[in-house]
Write a structure and sequence with these properties.
Layout: E1 4-9, H1 11-27, E2 32-36, H2 50-54, H3 61-64, H4 69-85, E3 90-97, H5 99-111, E4 118-122, H6 130-133, E5 139-142, H7 152-170, H8 177-181, E6 184-189, H9 194-204, E7 209-214, H10 218-228, E8 234-237, H11 242-248, H12 260-265, E9 269-272, E10 278-281, E11 296-300, E12 303-307, H13 310-324, E13 331-336, H14 353-366, E14 373-378, H15 385-403
Helix pairs in contact: 1-7, 4-5, 9-15, 11-13, 13-14
Amino acid sequence: MTGRVYVVGTADTKGAELAYIRDLIRADGVAAVTADLSTLPHGGAADISAREIAGHHPGGTEAVFTGDRGTAVAAMAEAFQRFLASRNDVDGVIGIGGSGGTALVAPALRALPIGIPKLIVSTVASGQVAGYVGPSDIAMMYSVTDIAGLNRIARVVLANAAHAMAGMARHRPKRDNHAETRPAVGLTMFGVTTPCVNAVTERLAARYDCLVFHATGTGGQSMEKLASSGLLAAVADLTTTEVCDRLMGGIFPCTDDRFGAIARSKVPYVGSCGALDMVNFGAPETVPERYAGRLFYHHNPQVTLMRTTADENARMGAWIGERLNRCEGQVRFLLPLGGVSLLDAPGQAFHDPEADAALFDALERTVKLTKRRRIMRVPHAINDEAFADIVVQELEDAVRSASHGR
């Protein structure tokens, strides 16, 4: 280890807790410092003052110490993110706080590279934490009691967190040597496209380190985060189903920036229409009333799938196509004419060639073809072995073309 762990929070109210964690980490033989994220200029006692961190805001300390809690928290969060980005000695970050403190810490941790240990001890950690964790590898630990002093519960919980962080920082795993020699490829998968992705990874495994992401909204964001970080040599985005939930109100939506990282990074890209035949909802009673009378498939007691219509498929095709048009790297988008999922195969519950045709036609109408940006009709279902062969062929062509600057 050559760096140190940053122990962060609002030292004006949680200085004792921050120092307690820092000292336990140091006792474990790991360098550690406290950093104050207080939104008042005097702050609290810490190794790195709130004023020093606030100085990293583009507007300076005055932009942070506004006297208004809402604007000050947002500004300090931005300042802390810029502060961490300026450091080259981050071996881990552990933050503590309630909802406000968690909001201060989380954006900076999300921006750190995957693999740097990140832990937040929070009063909100037992609830919905997707907004804090996002596509990153942040670990959340519930504080049990409020973080308001070192009592018999807080000492135990914070000590566990401190020792966990020390262990993660000290024993960050060495990357697999074989994997290091192979470029990484990101692939998106859903249960109904698993045969396709498994077949593709089997064909690529000797030459590529295959990273498979579950297309549950956050999965797509995680893949694109790695693409933005330059950690992927190529992307096989075969399961774009998150677009369904984004446009139709399902529970696994992508963001409006879906495909944005592909455009910005110009990473070689092969995409397809995997699971664009379905919108995901929870238990049947959670399906919005406006969808009464639609075709549903009960995947399990917690997941209800709704078949997308021709009109919805046309909307999705245009939405995806507009974003593909922003991609100037090597792009291949494959249209599986035989079906876009296991449920869309002949004889299955969601088989609907008319709806699929509306999707394919909208994509072809919208995407502006160039030498680098191509749409291809493939006469196979997405889970056919022959489709996997074509995916691999097009991916390798896209990588070669990118390396030759074509």
